[in-house]
Amino acid sequence: xxxxxxxxxxxxxxxxxxxxxxxxxxxxxxxxxxxxxxxxxxxxxxxxxxxxxxxxxxxxxxxxxxxxxxxxxxxxxxxxxxxxxxxxxxxxxxxxxxxxxxxxxxxxxxx
Length: 111
Fold this sequence. Notes:
Blueprint: E1 7-13, E2 19-26, E3 32-37, E4 39-46, E5 51-58, H1 64-86, H2 89-105
Antiparallel strand pairs: 1-2, 2-3, 4-5
Helix pairs in contact: 1-2
């Protein structure tokens, strides 16, 4: 029998169903237990329909500047993942260059 691992997200909502608190638990990679986070993007690939599905959540106390950094860092790590998974080095570089431009436009990068 193959081994199974679990990643769990717990989202606490306020009376208006807006996320107040997000926690995650995972046993792999050193393990995380009930670690509080402010935002998450989960993207999954559904091969039958060839559609990327996703869930984007953030807590109501996440500040706009934090969201800008989060998106910038996510874009940069998407380039890393593309490069590792496909070997598309040139495209990954273009994504990083674009990310740097966006970071400057959002005024989160000073150089």
